[in-house]
Amino acid sequence: MPLVNVMVNARAYTIACDDGEEEHLKSLAAYVDDKVRELLGTVGQVGDQRLLLMAALLIADENHDLAQRLEAQMQQSDAVSQAEVAKHRDKSQTAAAEALEAAAQRLEDVAAKLARA
Question: Greatest CA span in the chain, whole angstroms?
Fold first, then answer.
């Protein structure tokens, strides 16, 4: 299991990760560091623990918002899909009814010809 050195709030942290996840972990740490720096500009230095907690809460809030937006899009997609299914079902039923009517008319025509013969 590789160890990765990352920097958050000008402090070095060594974190273990799975093989191949090193760059992803560095990217995540850089994102956290950006949030911490953003907070530093707003609230100033309030201690590492509080700063990291606030950054974690901001990131959790972003995640929550994205999850809600995804859920809303999935529901909208489901509604569209159901409407499309209903539309195709109606078209299929109409086509089937028209085909049955045409077949019935042909049978009536054949029966009429046979009756005259």
Answer: 104
What is the helix (H) or strand (E) element at residue 27, kind and residue range? helix 22-43
Whole-angstrom distance, CA of residue 22 vs CA of residue 7: 14
Domain range list for the chain: 3-116
| pLDDT tens, residue order, the chain (117 aa) | 899 999 999 999 999 999 999 999 999 999 999 999 999 999 888 888 999 999 999 999 999 999 999 999 988 888 777 878 878 888 888 888 888 888 888 888 788 777 776
Q: Which pair of tokens denotes residue 113?
A: 């010809």
Phi-psi sector, 12: left (phi>0), alpha (psi -120 to 50), beta: beta
48 contacts 36 by C-beta, under 8 angstroms: no
Rounded to whole angstroms, the Cα distance separating 36 from 38 reads 5
CB-based contacts of 22, cutoff 8 Å, min separation 6: 2, 4
